[in-house]
Amino acid sequence: MDENVIITQWICILQPVWFVLMQVHDFYEKNRKQALSILNELSQLYAGRISYHWYTFVSDEGVTKSVLMRWDSLILQAQVTAVTVKETKRLAAELLAHFLFCSGWLPKKLQPQLVQENVDFTYDQKIISVLEKVNVKNVVKLFEIQQKRHRPLPLFKLVEPAYPTANAGLYVVNAVCEGYTTVGFGRTKRTAKEMAAAKMNKLIKNRVMSTRPTFLRRKGEKYNGFMDTIDTVETAWHLVEHRWVQVHYVRFP
Question: Angle of helix 138-148 relative to helix 189-210, nearest 10 degrees?
């Protein structure tokens, strides 16, 4: 990058209120590409034109992380205060990436995929066939179900602890699919993941069978509507006018 290029514009992206910042964080947590990866790939795409500088300040209020992005004659600055250095850097990257996205400055291949509306599970013989497979791991079944439905693949997230001791602690893994969440436990991450997937497959079976057409029911079988009452977790994240982004333009002579 030519350091002799004169800076003509400086954009400061101020930290929004905490719950809005968490909305942005959740949005990029569910995205296939994390914010730091988006920024790194953007600098590779515009090699020689983009550079980043990170600054850390520690005070009684917490850790403040500031990232300065220089893009030709433009500088963008995002600053976030949180608890840990790792968390603060991630949130600052998400704030900067989200501003670039909302401003239309991200190339199409780097734009985050918006979380889609949930599509509940209904009776489908293809799903039944997958669930009835034997000697197939539940994780594999769950992925195959979503592939056959042409829907987003399930997500698995390690909850705690990240590093259990040899004699204490269990891995806890959440499985998330179409707004439903199940929890699995185990001495290994693989075991916990498989348990979470097994619970999700059981939930899917209940949802599917509860919507089975009446004419497909066995003689004498009673139908009591939904087999389980399940609270659906809304995962649609709607972008609104980004009023939370306060931008100051400073033009240099």
Answer: 50
Q: Are residues 210 and 190 in the same domain?
A: yes
Return all residues near 167 (Cβ < 8 A) that are at least 6 apart: none
Closest by alpha carbon to 121, among 144, 146, 143? 146
Integer angstrom CA distances of residue 186 from 52, 138, 142, 154, 158: 41, 15, 19, 19, 11
CA torsion 106→104→237→14, rounded to 10°? 90
Tokens of 168: 């204490």
The total number of structural domains in the chain stands at: 2
The structure's pTM equals 0.49
Q: Which two tokens stand for residue 195?
A: 């348990």
State CA 10 to chain mean position distance: 30
- Taking 50 as the pLDDT cut, the residues of the chain under it are 215-219, 221-253
* Helices (H) then strands (E): counts for the chain: 6, 8
Task: Tell me how far apart the alpha carbons of residues 51 and 100 are, in angstroms, rounded to a whole number.
Answer: 15
Joined together, the tokens standing for residue 171 give: 């891995």
Q: pLDDT tens digits for 70-108?
A: 998 888 999 999 988 999 999 999 999 998 988 889 998
The CATH number of the domain holding residue 138 is: 3.30.160.20
